[in-house]
Amino acid sequence: MKNKSKIRYDIILIIGLLAITAIIALGVRLTEKTGKTVVVSVDGVEKYTFTLDEDLEFKIEGYEGGTNYLVIKDGEACLTEASCPDLLCVHMGKISSQGQSIICLPNRVVVEIRDDNESDPKEFDAIVG
Length: 129
Hints:
By secondary structure, the chain is of the alpha+beta class. The protein has 2 domains: about 1-30; about 35-115, Sandwich (mini-chromosome maintenance (MCM) complex, domain 2). The protein has helices at about 1-30, 90; strands spanning about 35-40, 45-50, 55-60, 65-75, 75-80, 100-105, 110-115. A 4-stranded antiparallel sheet has the order 2-1-7-6. It has a 3-stranded antiparallel sheet with strand order 3-4-5. The longest helix is centred in the N-terminal third of the chain and has 30 residues, at about 1-30. It is elongated and about 80 Å long. It starts with a helix and ends in a 14-residue tail after the last strand.
């Protein structure tokens, strides 16, 4: 009989610890600033930088007069219009996570998400061996 109650208390303790951990993780996640920026490069040169937190519509002058329209809304960025013939960049959809990008080859425009909070890319996360 004592064995069953001991197991029951162990389960309650584990569930309680998991709940506390989840609450702390959620609190940290909600209070953390995104720090994500949208970087626009034209012909290999970084031209514009915007924060992902601000809503805006912006016309990008691409290569040889080509144009793309960048929209940042609700923490997501996308190209809504482009002067390129295939419109692949428009169909790539919305991006919001670090490392994602939208590329328009004819206009030589690259829109990418970078995380300002991320450590130097030359630093190691961990060494295993």
